[in-house]
Hints:
The protein is an alpha+beta fold. Helix content is 53%, strand content 11%. The chain starts with 6 loop residues before the first helix and ends in a 5-residue tail after the last helix.
Amino acid sequence: MTGFFSEATLEQIRAASDIVDVIGSYIPLKKSGANFQALCPFHKEKTPSFNVNPHLQIFKCFGCQKGGNVFTFVKEYEGLDFPETVRRLADRAKIPLEFEQGPGEQQARHIKEKLLQIHEQITQRWQHALANEAAGQIARDYLAKRGVSSEAITLFRLGYAPEVWDDTVNWGKNKGHEPAVMEKAGLILRKEGSESYYDRFRGRLMFPICDEQGRVIGFSGRILSGDEKTAKYVNSPETPIFTKSKVFFGLDKSKRALLEAECAVVCEGQLDLIACYMAGVQNIVAPQGTAFTAEHARILKRYVEEVVLCFDSDEAGQNAAVRSLEHLLASGLAVRVAVVPAPHDPDSFVKEFGGEAFKQLIEQAAGFFDYYLNRLCTLHDPKTDRGKLTVLREMAEAVHRTGNAVLIDNYARKTAVRLGASPEAVSAEFKKLVRKPTRQPQEVTTDKPALAEVPAPSDQERALLCVLLRFDETVQVAVGRGFDINWLRHPWVQKIVSRRFEIHNKGEWRNLPAFLEEFSEVEIQELTQTAMNQVPIPDPQRQLCDIARDLRDQYFEQQADELIQQARDPTISEPKREALLVQVDEFEAKRGQPF
Ligand SMILES: [Zn+2]
């Protein structure tokens, strides 16, 4: 059983897709003995270590160790998921696909195709309005003022949505698109208590957001009137083809450059990205909005080993940089931070000083922890005792998340210099602040690594404790929606949460102090105390769902990674490998869904 596709179909597609033909259609292959060779498309190299074996129908790179069959290649090269890969190869081989999931699946596919078609058409419509229509003058003026070239406008397919309530509504009617489908596409909205609709994007400069294959899947619309500084964006809502947390603006254009540079510059806004890209810094992406998700980190990891965050120099931008850290570190990416000197943002900086100056800024970007130490010392005066303690604690927590002893030691020394303390003292405090356990927790039976190897609870785990312990009603939601204890990594957090659920299920909840009394471990007391000292939470239930989704997705990601490791084992059979990869895709499909 392989989910969407039968074994027979997969086999038929594989037989019709000669690996040399398929890979040869992407990159030039050179015959070398019985095999073929090429410069590896997955890592940067000068001499070919990428091999294709026509006899075994597999490829292998001895440089970056990527390897697999024809499905693996297309999946990796095109950045597709497994079903899309199968479809791509089936199309190529002109093999019709039967869908084992029946009409539901076919309908979902049909809707997606329809939405993609509408997005492509409306992109053209808005491009035309920007280029040719009188109403588009305001947008043309704006772009001219911001110094956006006509090449950039064409390349990024910018458009203009006219300043009326029914332009898109009427356009859809003329094109014969059902209003309900237009609504599903996120382009129009229904008036409350009525059958009539109105446009979501009105009087806006339109930035199409593309998937990695360059298909338009959503929009970001920038308002053109009003105050520059508070300019607002309206984005497409989540639709069957658009998931904000999984999309980077610009990635469809920058993916080759990312592979070549082995490094991704992450900026905040579309105009920043366009300015940098046009100035020659093409290894650049922008998440939608400032929230950087675990999914974003995972996508970047497919392309690069290092990320340079280049956020605005203002407070919001710098906070966004710090918040991105957790996901980036968890994914194993190296992180540096480039600070654009105030009052510039990347866009205005590039316009004033040019692409070369920006490249230098990126090259000279400090390692994340150097940046962070600087920032902490700016925010908390290290000459005061209070400042010293804060810097010490925050640095300890941040570097411990890497789980890397060399880094921890290195930054203990750097922190010591800033605090005017001895490195030994800071090292000792670092160790104390991220407490090692004195014994194993008793009731939790897991095969997780011993606690000594487990880093401190993640921010999300802390936040989860905070919501669950402070807002009793969230426990019901978590239990009701099937929160799985295995999504938690930290044994103490697991222990606390499973006990809290157990009490809920038995209907024995009294109050928090009584609950905390159950735990003898000092560490658990401390953990719950710090979790409780968090900021006010306006919408606890929402918060819970967001945290639960992230924790669940991280867990699925980890499971998928383990399966991928198994699938890389060269000794396993092809059907077994395929089965593993299908399981991987099933995990991937489940991710990003609301909790
Ligand atoms: Zn390679």
